[in-house]
Write a structure and sequence with these properties.
Blueprint lengths: L2 H8 L4 E3 L5 E3 L2 H10 L31 H19 L18
Antiparallel strand pairs: 1-2
């Protein structure tokens, strides 16, 4: 992985455009010093306590891979189903749901 990709994965901005519209890119020597100053990522010891079926392992050392569309749709469906259960019946189209203890307008 090249230095600029490592910096991007760490959340470091490597270029910007100043107020006069001039583009600036970080020098590789300076960027290497900054990237090397970041501590190595170590997983939390509490991750071992999480049941395996609830864990989505993501390798942060390489480029990010997009989850399959079916997985994304299943997660979204699960989220919205959970929210529907929590909120009860949906409000009529175009209206906000009524909060408990308040009369509808």
């Amino acid at each position: 992985m090249d230095l600029f990709e490592k910096a991007k994965n760490l959340g470091i901005l490597t270029e910007f455009i100043d107020g006069q519209g001039v583009s600036h890119v970080t020098d590789e020597t300076a960027l290497k010093i900054i990237v090397d100053a970041f501590p190595a990522r170590t997983p939390s010891r509490f991750l071992d306590d999480i049941p395996a079926e609830l864990v989505d392992a993501i390798d942060l050392s390489g480029p990010r891979q997009e989850a399959p569309k079916a997985v994304q749709e299943a997660k979204a469906r699960s989220f919205f189903d959970s929210m529907s259960e929590l909120l009860g019946d949906a409000a009529p189209a175009g209206q906000a749901p009524v909060r408990p203890g308040r009369a509808p307008r």
